[in-house]
Amino acid sequence: MKLAAVDIGSNAIRLQITHVTHYEGNTNFKKLEYLRFPLRLGLDVFHEQKISDKNKRKFVKLMKAFKLLIDLYEVDDYMACATSAMRESINGKEIVEEVREDIGLKINIIDGNHEAELINLALGNYIDDKSYLHIDVGGGSTELNIYINREKIATKSFKIGSVRALEDTIPLPVWKSMSKFIGDHVTKKDQIISIGTGGNISKIFELSNPSKNKRFLTIEKIKEVQSYLESFSIDERVNKLNLNPDRADVIIPASKIYLAAMEAASSKKMIVPDVGLKDGIMHVLYRKNRNKKPRAGTE
């Protein structure tokens, strides 16, 4: 079985195509294709409340390319989800409808809670009977989920994202509301462990020179990497640290969001699993299609 996930974010857009096989009682997920295109829809929306004509044209071309790949790989099922930039854009629904009619690609504009639920599906192996704060920082929003004894006790989406922070468009009351939400649901005795998802925390983890087989960061290490990054200009981050241009400018604002959430929870440690929205979409697609007979030659 072949499945495809499209994640239409505020800072970039991703396509992943996965081959799912069953062998000797085991289910295996093999990544066949992964593409990340740096189209910053959020920059338009957070300033002008709409996607510009230029970026609309780029977006439509990109969706045509993704649809061609989905068809060429003979994918059995796919799901495309658009998050904060598209849902806040006054012309977002119009663009989605144009893509559906002209290209045949269906896009779901999802709210923050649905986005958080999809990401949570990919976190099953990381949640046990301890207390966790899941922090997912995107370009336009941050999703928080709090788990106590394997039970999700609270979830909320905030208009706090790396692109918004870069452009300094986050009002102080919004920052305060995020801290209050965390403080209302956890106490120091909970000994909260954070779980960080998103491209920026994954890059921070990579830059931390992690030990083999250990996917966690201390809050001190995050601050150390943040300070290291701040010692370089954006051009130096691109040319000396080999960061993508659309990562080089937002990674420090993103780090501040993760740290703000961790400090509000008095959390000292963060697990950094290599999962995101696209992986949650894959879980939904697999559950939907696992009992279907695969097309000939795909299994």
Explain this structure.
The protein is α/β, with parallel strands linked by helices and 299 residues long. It has two domains: 123 residues, ATPase, nucleotide binding domain (Nucleotidyltransferase, domain 5, 2-Layer Sandwich); 151 residues, Nucleotidyltransferase, domain 5 (2-Layer Sandwich), CATH 3.30.420.150. The protein is 44% helix and 24% strand. It contains 13 helices and eleven strands. The strands form two sheets. It has a six-stranded mixed β-sheet, sandwiched between helices. The chain has a five-stranded mixed β-sheet with strand order 3-2-1-4-5, sandwiched between helices. A hairpin with a 2-residue loop joins strand 7 and strand 8. Helix 5 packs across helix 13, helix 8 packs across helix 12 and helix 9 packs antiparallel against helix 12.
Describe the structure using short key phrases.
299 residues, five-stranded mixed β-sheet, six-stranded mixed β-sheet, 11 strands, Nucleotidyltransferase, domain 5, single chain
Oligomeric state of the chains present here: single chain
Number of strands: 11
The best one-word shape is globular
Instruction: Please state the average pLDDT score.
Output: 92
Under CATH, the homologous superfamily of the largest domain reads Exopolyphosphatase. Domain 2
The largest sheet is: 6 strands, mixed
CATH fold type of the largest domain: Nucleotidyltransferase, domain 5
CATH-defined architecture of the largest domain = 2-Layer Sandwich
User: How large a portion of the residues is in β-strands, by DSSP E?
Assistant: 15-25%
Computed over alpha carbons, the radius of gyration is 19 Å
Give the low-pLDDT segments: none
Identify the CATH class of the largest domain. Answer: Alpha Beta
N-to-C series of helices and strands = EEEHHEHHEHEEEHHEHEHHHHEH
Number of domains: 2
Count of alpha and pi helical runs: 13
GO molecular function: pyrophosphatase activity
Domain Ppx/GppA phosphatase N-terminal: 29-282
Pfam families: Ppx-GppA
Protein name: Exopolyphosphatase
